[in-house]
Amino acid sequence: MREEDPGRETWLRLLGNAVVLAEVIQAFSAPENAVRMDEARDNACNDMGKMLQFVLPVATQIQQEVIKAYGFSCDGEGVLKFARLVKSYEAQDPEIASLSGKLKALFLPPMTLPPHGPASGGSVAAS
């Protein structure tokens, strides 16, 4: 009986996660899912609270449809487990980190930081 190479097992897990991530991203571009996401974004009106109310549930459903084929439960908990697993491999594999960023960009609005410093009027004059 030969001993398995632990590096090989890790590599297989990394490869599997990259494949599943790519499938999830591809699912968002399916015509019916693209329409669902567009409708949810329109309803959210770029409001973060409404994004959580309208966009996140649709994004979660789209992910569930893909990851259930890979043994994850078909509920919010399954999506959270998948997200945690992906997060744990992001530092080990630049492809997974890149795919994870692409996935997040599909349903999270770009974050803009408020300007800081005197030029932005952020300082208060002493009286």
UniProtKB/TrEMBL annotation:
Entry keywords, A to Z: Cytoplasm
Give its localization.
Answer: Cytoplasm
Among the Pfam families in the record, one is P_C10
Q: Which GO terms describe its cellular component?
A: cytoplasm
Q: What GO terms in the biological process aspect are recorded for it?
A: post-embryonic development
Q: Origin, by domain of life? A: Eukaryota
Family annotation (InterPro entries): P_C10
Principal location class: cytoplasm
Q: Which PANTHER family match?
A: PROTEIN C10 (PTHR13463:SF3)
Family as reported in the entry's similarity comment? Belongs to the UPF0456 family.
Record protein name field: Protein C10
